[in-house]
Known about the structure:
By secondary structure, this protein is of the alpha+beta class. It is built from 4 helices and 2 strands. It has a two-stranded antiparallel ribbon. A hairpin with a 2-residue loop joins strand 1 and strand 2. The model has no long low-confidence stretch (mean pLDDT 76).
Amino acid sequence: xxxxxxxxxxxxxxxxxxxxxxxxxxxxxxxxxxxxxxxxxxxxxxxxxxxxxxxxxxxxxxxxxxxxxxxxxxxxxxxxxxxxxxxxxxxxxxxxxxxxxxxxxxxxxxxxxxxxxxxxxxxxxxxxxxxxxxxxxxxxxxxxx
Length: 145
């Protein structure tokens, strides 16, 4: 019937006719908070029976659409979970870059700084030791006179 209708009407007329048919599903983007993370999700509202227009549609399509309408909540939940997954994946990648920066940049700098501080402290300790020896020798030489 659909092919017959298209053959009797031009595709433009058929497009105009389809514009008159109201949509049967309203979809809104909503902010959903899961596990402390905020992300955009889909919420399906106004799901009703299939609404195609005035042309006959094969019954297989009806049963498929009723099956989809029956599972809209599960589908929207899966879409939202997929969105959450990609959000978490982006965060994991961001944290991985931070960990790599710490491992490859910050830790070597800190280790080098710690070595420098140890060397400086050892040098200062040796200088202080030498000073004490020199002072003790001076005091001994002054005390003997």
